User: Which sequence fits this backbone?
């Protein structure tokens, strides 16, 4: 829970808007491998002081550490990747600073009220004030610094919305073309919902144990044929972890279950109970409770989501182009070693 709350704080307050709008920009940077176990470099090896200047404005090591926490989301860094991670985080900070320097020229109405509102909304993500303050402390910052980050974030948001988003035009033809060219993304395979009773007998079971398991399964099958309640029998007899739920396995598609079980389940109609099915886990009795046929989501049902997705892509592209141009004219000094 702590990591989740901290991540929300970082995303909501500390990350400049381009980190939300500009996923494509970030994605262009080399990814950090997330392997475990992995040892972080000792704290003494971390950068200190000013790590870069953008048109004279400093970026210090504290900001770099916070950016890394956002980027890594609680993952540790292998020692041989620490330098690459620092550089990646610094590139994000430089991009954010370039956006802010362009954005600060804007006039924002009721800026203080907007900051207050955003901070209040952020607080709502935490269970209480203590949890909120603890998350800030974990980032080595105070509420005054948090307010400053929020102010910068609002400037960048306003800049992106006023200057770059209008360029991100998505037509209905664009949306339709995406749908038609990506039909596989909108197809849903047939799924079934089933419950089962498992009388366990794995591959290492003796012939006698398998015989006893089969006999028990046959006895239960007869009880079901005689009108016994499936869920009740599952709760009292099944060796599967699903027993407390009456054997309910929920919905699943093809390829998710072992072949023999899948074949039997998909052959049933809702309400039907299978004959005894043997798998490497033992003997199953399967009851199909629901079936959803294969289908394709209609265009009208996904139109809005596709438009939003394409709009996001175009905003990313606009941010990327802006940053490319800004870097050409900016004086960027990097002191990170």
Assistant:
């Amino acid at each position: 829970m702590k990591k989740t709350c901290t991540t929300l704080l970082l995303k909501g307050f500390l990350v400049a808007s381009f980190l939300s709008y500009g996923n494509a920009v970030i994605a262009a940077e080399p990814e950090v491998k997330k392997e475990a176990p992995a040892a972080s470099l000792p704290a003494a090896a971390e950068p200190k002081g000013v790590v870069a200047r953008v048109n004279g404005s400093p970026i210090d090591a504290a900001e770099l550490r916070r950016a890394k926490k956002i980027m890594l989301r609680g993952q540790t860094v292998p020692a041989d990747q620490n330098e690459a991670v620092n550089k990646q985080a610094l590139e994000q900070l430089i991009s954010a600073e370039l956006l802010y320097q362009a954005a600060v020229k804007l006039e924002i109405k009721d800026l203080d009220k907007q900051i207050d509102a955003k901070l209040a909304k952020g607080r709502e993500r935490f269970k209480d004030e203590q949890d909120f303050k603890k998350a800030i402390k974990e980032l080595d910052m105070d509420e005054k610094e948090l307010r400053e980050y929020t102010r910068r974030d609002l400037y960048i948001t306003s800049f992106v919305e006023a200057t770059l988003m209008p360029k991100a035009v998505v037509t209905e033809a664009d949306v339709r073309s995406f749908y038609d060219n990506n039909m596989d993304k909108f197809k849903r395979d047939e799924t079934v919902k089933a419950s089962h009773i498992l009388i366990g007998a794995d591959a290492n079971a003796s012939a006698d144990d398998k015989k006893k398991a089969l006999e028990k399964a046959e006895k239960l099958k007869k009880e079901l044929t005689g009108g016994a309640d499936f869920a009740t029998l599952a709760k009292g007899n099944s060796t599967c972890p699903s027993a407390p739920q009456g054997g309910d396995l929920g919905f699943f598609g093809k390829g998710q279950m072992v072949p023999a079980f899948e074949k039997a389940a998909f052959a049933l109609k809702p309400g039907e109970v299978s004959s005894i099915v043997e798998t490497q886990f033992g003997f199953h009795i399967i009851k199909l409770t629901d079936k959803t046929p294969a289908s394709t989501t209609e265009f009208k049902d996904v139109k809005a989501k596709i438009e939003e997705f394409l709009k996001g892509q175009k905003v990313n592209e606009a941010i990327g182009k802006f940053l490319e141009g800004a870097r050409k004219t900016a004086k960027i000094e990097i002191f990170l070693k």
